[in-house]
From TrEMBL:
<dbReference type="Pfam" id="PF04253">
    <property type="entry name" value="TFR_dimer"/>
</dbReference>
<dbReference type="InterPro" id="IPR036757">
    <property type="entry name" value="TFR-like_dimer_dom_sf"/>
</dbReference>
<dbReference type="Pfam" id="PF04389">
    <property type="entry name" value="Peptidase_M28"/>
</dbReference>
<feature type="domain" description="Peptidase M28">
    <location>
        <begin position="331"/>
        <end position="514"/>
    </location>
</feature>
<dbReference type="InterPro" id="IPR003137">
    <property type="entry name" value="PA_domain"/>
</dbReference>
<dbReference type="InterPro" id="IPR007484">
    <property type="entry name" value="Peptidase_M28"/>
</dbReference>
<comment type="similarity">
    <text>Belongs to the peptidase M28 family. M28B subfamily.</text>
</comment>
<dbReference type="InterPro" id="IPR039373">
    <property type="entry name" value="Peptidase_M28B"/>
</dbReference>
<dbReference type="InterPro" id="IPR007365">
    <property type="entry name" value="TFR-like_dimer_dom"/>
</dbReference>
<protein>
    <submittedName>
        <fullName>M28 family peptidase</fullName>
    </submittedName>
</protein>
<dbReference type="Pfam" id="PF02225">
    <property type="entry name" value="PA"/>
</dbReference>
<feature type="domain" description="Transferrin receptor-like dimerisation">
    <location>
        <begin position="574"/>
        <end position="692"/>
    </location>
</feature>
<feature type="domain" description="PA">
    <location>
        <begin position="147"/>
        <end position="213"/>
    </location>
</feature>
<dbReference type="InterPro" id="IPR046450">
    <property type="entry name" value="PA_dom_sf"/>
</dbReference>
Length: 702
């Protein structure tokens, strides 16, 4: 069902209803009027019913990366994109990963032998749970082994948790450790377990984090039942992407271009066996442990006292035999060529591989992008295509370690550096009804203002108003790890954002299927079209603005805040620290120059007389802004991560590290590199200032 454009046009023409921007960033007043008319047509062109059709089709079968079922999804994506008028291209890679869990088992050996369940129950209500191709719970990139040992409980298995156990004198050498999901990337749980000498790792989702302690469990509610299992990768290299080809694309072995691959023995892959089990089975282990009670904050939601050790009378066997080898994966990238600036790219993306059906993660985002591609394709057929090229990418191999998008960025690095305006990520982008987002400083305003234009379903409010709630402004986060923006933002310096709608999900379980989606995620199936409208407005404004609509004054605001947070953290262990003085002075200048440049951009646009040469040169300078943060030698924790502004937390894998070179120093409670860091950050900010000054000079002299 399409939304009628009459109401939308009325709000646009009268200025009633949703808050409207008089003049859009990057546009003159005249251009803003034309853009608003185009946006009204776009909103009307979004077919809300299309989202449901795509989601039902894509999630018909489980489709793990490297399987025939996933190639069938790939072919469907190509078919839909080409039918919508997009020039579609496949990018194949041969990557090192397990596409099948292989064999595994978990059993209590003593005091009584008891095999433990490793797969979700078949539910009468959910016919998808009977699918014959569903796999038992597994963790990709587990080591292979067969271990019988005593048990140690490690809480969430964070760096701090393992350090606390060691401080309490708990010996983990040769033991099986059991950890609950949460607070860090599962791969780091395995990494720390191996560092402390554990012989194996068992993972589970505690009901305190998602289970009966939260509310009704599946199929009566959206929380984990006693058989639900979170799958997921354990890959924890010091870089992102294929583990055998750091910095280089994992091009097909039989292709024309030959890529040197590492020997798997030279990687940082785990050697201990690791597998997840449901909390109903974890309770059978944890409930028999008789060591000291756990410290405060370590107690979970199961109905007994959690203890640190099981003692010699409780032994558990863990066996994993997981094959890993070169597997073909395929990115699908469609392009609508820009009419005026074809060599400037707006890229939107979501991966399509899943651990099972993937209804919320990731394919709600995939289906939304297909719906968007149809709407934008319709506009292009009517002669209203974008001025800049818009690319929509469907990534493969994300679940195994953000592999497909990373290999594409590494393959296209030079071209992306010259052409990419922004990357917009929508992984699991329509997995509920709660609006959220995170963005680079330059894209936050674009994201927020676009939300003002979109009606929130089943209400009289805009997406912006629902997102904002009772706050003065919507809550906008900072990009961390765990999804396909990483290579764009943290390796190549391309402004990125991630957004959409979320809610409780059965994350990485076999129950993340169409039945769950239609009963708990969005029963009205209105959010898919809504997020397509939101993402489309963002893309069209970035694509059609005469000058790329970055918020150039936001850099100083956000950098000042992050630096203040860093100074506070340092003060906790270095009381005589006086701050990064050179950086502070540079930030004061950046604040003034950013505001001045913003005014010059607005004034220059309003004259409506900018020459094509000035427009080209100013946009070229704008593309350099984010790259001011790129450090050639990379971060101290991994030279693949180049951005001084943001990176993933190398100890948790998910969290965002703002000013990562400084954060690394803080994490080690060190002060030895502060002078060098002050110089590095001051130099990056000075580069930002110079770029802004060149922009201002171009506009003044036109």
């Amino acid at each position: 069902m399409k939304r009628t454009g009459v109401i939308v046009a009325f709000f646009l023409s009268t200025g009633l209803g949703f808050p409207q921007v008089e003049r859009l960033d990057g546009f003159s007043s005249t251009e803003s009027n034309a853009q608003n008319e185009l946006e009204a047509l776009f909103l009307e062109s979004v077919n809300f019913s299309s989202f449901k059709t795509h989601l039902a089709t894509i999630t018909r079968h489980p489709h793990i990366a490297g399987t025939k079922a996933n190639e069938d999804v790939r072919d469907y994506l190509v078919e839909v994109m080409e039918a919508a008028g997009w020039q579609t291209k496949l990018y194949p890679y041969d990557v090192y990963l397990p596409s099948d869990p292989g064999r595994s088992s978990v059993e209590i050996v003593t005091p009584e032998r008891r095999p433990l369940n490793q797969q979700e129950y078949i539910l009468e209500a959910d016919t998808f749970s009977r699918h014959p191709q569903l796999k038992k719970g597994w963790n990709a990139f587990s080591g292979s082994g067969d271990v019988t040992a005593e048990v140690v409980y490690t809480n969430y298995g964070t760096k701090a948790d393992f350090e606390k156990l060691a401080a309490m004198g708990i010996d983990m050498k040769g033991k099986l450790v059991i950890a609950r999901y949460g607070q860090n990337f599962r791969g780091y749980k395995a990494k720390f377990a191996e560092q402390y000498g554990a012989a194996g790792l068992i993972l589970y989702t505690d009901p305190e984090d998602s289970g009966f302690a939260k509310g009704l469990v599946y199929p009566d509610g959206p929380y984990y039942n006693e058989s639900a299992i979170q799958r997921g990768s354990l890959l924890t290299e010091s870089f992102t992407g294929d583990p055998l080809t750091p910095f280089e694309p994992a091009l097909p072995v039989e292709g024309k271009t030959k890529i040197n691959r590492l020997d798997p023995e030279d990687t940082q892959l785990h050697t201990i066996p690791v597998t997840p089990i449901p909390y109903g089975e974890a309770a059978k282990i944890l409930g028999q442990m008789n060591g000291k009670p756990v410290p405060a904050g370590w107690q979970g939601g199961l109905p007994f006292t959690y203890r640190l050790e099981g003692g010699p009378q409780l032994t558990v066997r863990l066996m994993v035999d997981q094959p890993i080898g070169l597997v073909p994966i395929f990115n699908v990238v469609g392009t609508l060529n820009g009419s005026t600036y074809p060599d400037e790219w707006i890229i939107l993306g979501c991966h399509y591989d899943a651990w099972a059906f993937g209804a919320t993660d990731p394919n709600s985002g995939t289906s939304m992008l297909l719906t968007l591609s149809e709407a934008l394709g319709q506009l292009a057929r009517e002669g209203k295509g974008p001025k800049r090229s818009i690319l929509i990418a469907h990534w493969d191999g994300e679940e195994h370690g953000v592999i497909g998008s990373t290999e594409w960025v590494e393959q296209m690095k030079d071209e992306l550096g010259a052409k990419a305006v922004a990357y917009l990520n929508f992984d699991a982008g329509v997995s509920g009804r709660n609006i959220g987002g995170a963005a680079a400083p330059s894209l936050k305003k674009v994201m927020v203002n676009a939300a003002k234009k979109i009606s929130y379903p089943d209400s009289s409010k805009s997406v912006y108003e629902v997102w904002k709630g009772n706050r003065e402004e919507p809550s906008l986060g900072n990009l961390g790890g765990g999804s396909d923006h990483i290579a764009f933002y943290m390796h190549t310096g391309i402004p990125s954002l991630s957004g959409g709608a979320g809610g409780p999900t059965l994350y990485h379980t076999n129950y993340d299927d169409f039945y769950f989606y239609e009963h708990f995620s969005d029963p009205s199936f209105q959010m898919g079209g809504t997020i397509a409208q939101w993402s489309g407005i963002m893309a069209l404004r970035l694509a059609n603005a005469t000058l790329i609509p970055y918020d150039v004054s936001r850099y100083a605001t956000d950098l000042t805040m992050h630096m203040a947070n860093a100074n506070s953290s340092i003060a906790e262990y270095a009381t005589d620290f006086e701050g990064f003085t050179a950086t502070k002075q540079a930030l004061e200048k950046l604040d003034a120059v950013g505001k001045e440049t913003e005014i010059k951009i607005k004034d220059g646009l309003e004259k409506e007389s900018l020459s094509s040469g000035v427009i080209s040169r100013v946009n070229g300078e704008l593309l350099r802004l984010e790259k001011s943060f790129l450090l050639k030698e990379g971060m101290p924790f991994g030279d693949w991560y180049k951005s001084l502004y943001a990176s993933t937390d190398p100890y948790s894998g998910y969290a965002s590290w703002m000013l990562p070179a400084i954060q690394y120093e803080i994490s080690n409670k060190s002060t030895s590199n502060f002078e060098k860091l002050d110089q590095q950050y001051e130099a990056a900010i000075q580069q930002l200032i110079k770029t802004l000054e060149r922009i201002g000079s171009e506009l003044e002299n036109d």
